[in-house]
Design brief:
Elements lengths: L6 E6 L2 E6 L7 E3 L2 H15 L2 E5 L5 E6 L10
Length: 75
């Protein structure tokens, strides 16, 4: 089974980029964070992976899981 690729939305200069975690190049670059989040969410849902949204300082401000989470949640 292929390892799932988590998705990062992060700033890139005056723009926002969407890329697979630890990738060297962005999948796509957007003018607004909102556009980047929408595209990143689509990718994460398609890949059943995690979406990490970072602020301008590079800190994770939000994270969402679109994978196979246990139900009910453990713990």
């Amino acid at each position: 089974m292929a390892k799932k690729q988590n998705i990062d939305v992060s700033p890139s200069g005056d723009n926002w980029q969407v890329k697979k975690h630890n990738a060297s190049r962005a999948s796509k670059v957007f003018k607004t964070q909102k556009q980047a989040i929408e595209y990143g969410r689509e990718l994460a849902k398609k890949n059943k992976s995690e979406l990490y949204i970072k602020n301008r300082k590079g800190q994770v401000r939000d994270a969402n899981s679109y994978g196979k989470d246990p139900h009910p949640p453990e713990g």
